[in-house]
Amino acid sequence: MQNSEIMTLPVTVLRGMVAFPHNKVTFDAGRDVTINAVEAAMGKDKMIFLSPQINPEINEISKDSCSETGVIGKIIQIMRLPGGITRVIASGYTRARIINSRMEKYIEADIAAMPDFVSDARMHGALVRELKQRYQDFFSINNRMTSERFLRILAIDDGSVLSDTIAHQVEFPLEVKQRLLEASDVNERMELLIKCLANETDLLNLRLKIEKEVKKHIDKNQREYYLREQLKVIENELGDKDGSNAEMAEYRKKISALGLSPEYSEKLNKEVDRLKKCGFASAEGGVIRSYLDTVTELPWNKKTKENLSIENAKKILDRDHFGLEKVKKNVLLNLAVRNFNARGTNILCLVGPPGVGKTSIVKSIAEALGRNYVRISLGGIHDEADIRGHRKTYIGAMSGRIMSAVAQAGSKNALILLDEIDKVGTDYRGDPSAALLEVLDSEQNFAFRDHYIELPFDLSEVMFITTANTLDTISRPLLDRMDVIEVTGYTREEKLVIAKKYLFPKALEKTGLKGKRVTIASDAVYELIDYYTRESGVRNLERLLIKILSETAMLYLSEGKSTLKITKKLVHEFLGRRRYSFETKNSGDEVGLARGLAWTAVGGETLSVEVNVMKGTGKIELTGKLGDVMKESAMAAISFLRSAAERYGIADFYKTKDIHIHVPEGAVPKDGPSAGITMASAAFSALTGKKVRCDIAMTGEITLRGRVLPIGGLKEKSLAAHRAGINNIVIPYDNKKDLEDIPENIRAEMKFIPVKTMDEVLAAVIAK
Fold it and tell me: Catalytic site residues?
């Protein structure tokens, strides 16, 4: 080919490689443009222009994809491979550049050759020798080349052929190879190649140095492993089969640090000896190791410094809780006794409906005393082993919840909360309540034995506090060990203060609105209390406040408000229609309709009792999904009226009249020992035709002789009557002492009528 010649050739764009003159190149043609170019070359004289792709990451080819400088080559061989791939072997002849290009099915270009030239003939020989030396240095540390290829390259004396061959053989970066291809000056090309080889040689030396250091480190580890294996053999010969001396020494050190009596220390050391004989890999060894870890982690002699300051305790209780004055006083009295005798107080049992703050009170007590706090939930426990632990011989054995809590607390004078003690169950696996008797008895728990630990542990310095929703399901022996403190519900005024002082700021923090100018009106809080929650506590009230503030956050984002006051109207908008409505007193006095009072787990409620009398044969019908106790109250009321029939002027009603006693809301189960006088009053009214006052409610149990027995939950019942607008309440005479539990503002607005007999009840409730 003449240097001045311009040829028109198909162009193949090489992706990720550079072809050089005097060397063969192999590439795969998979793209349609490349395949078409190869086929066009094969249809003529097999000549083709090999151009590197400018950006190898781009899959699509255009006439702008190829570099201007490339190599004119000739296709030697093509092979068809599976998947539509054509493998091409071509030989490069000379450098050339594109003058003009166009593209249809493939790229076709006008090509002008770029002849090599030597700018300085005197430097040429020296550069050839230097290039060979650099290549020889590179080859000496590069083990990827064969000696035959190396010697063949060193035999080349032509600087142009030598530099192109070395550039083709060595894996330089693509941009470096492209620069070498573009250099028509042979001296310039060799100078660039010498620098590149020197750089690659330095990089290879550095890599070899790093590999040598890594190998040295690996050899060191192998040496240590070999020495350890030798040590094991020596220890085996000396009798220490598993090399466990260090572990045994560590266990003995921990046992010594526990400060146990010689008897118990000796027992634990025997376990260490057993572990040594069992070996590391045995199953029994794992059991013993778990046992020793559990025992040595217990705080046998660790204590925290206790703060028995009554002033500090009062300050913390007042800070965290509003109201509950009687509860706080009982707690402080208990703490006062602990100043003189820590073991002279009973176990506190906080009893009350959900959400009134029982658990949070215990947390405050722990903070006031400076004791570590741990909570154990007893709800649903049926297995005695949950309290006393499993024996070590069982698979998966572990210590009971009591010892686990002590270990978690990290001190032997922790405060442990036994939550929901009223929900402990009993089945064939034992009675957890019976196991708790020893735990909660200060005369016994100084040597509590957990089945797993086996050694006696002193629980007398642990302060146990329990919580429950009701006392009915707690076993009597267990209840006898506890000092019961009733945590009753809050009045609506107390809930208002709690909501504004505690719950609303807490809800602002949870929703991320703390610091924003968000306030809430008192009437909005009252709306939530009266018509959206029905509870003694404030748990649902807190949930609703968080929900309202979540809606408020939406308003901030959607409308861009900077300040917002939550009003009664916004409560309706955010929460929808009211969920509850309170019964109010009847508009007038009625025959056969009396208003009773009931206690529920979420507070007090009013309860209407309706009685109809019809001609019949003395049948008694009870409806309204009544429990056994209420059914017995109804029968006792009827029996009393029969016994006093002549005195009340209702003789022989049990022969000629049928009586139907109904308590509305039949889908709601109702039970309890406080509806006797209400049923008797409603039945008396229906039998005599005399009306029952609509402005009065009553609570109390009746006996067959007409005596009125005391009831519980007077505070909650009084609050329910007050909400319903009823200000007169008939109560058993023996409940007069409970009036001081009722908030003073409620007590001032209501009239309480203590009664001893049914005659006094009828005198008070029957309209004149």
Answer: 674, 717
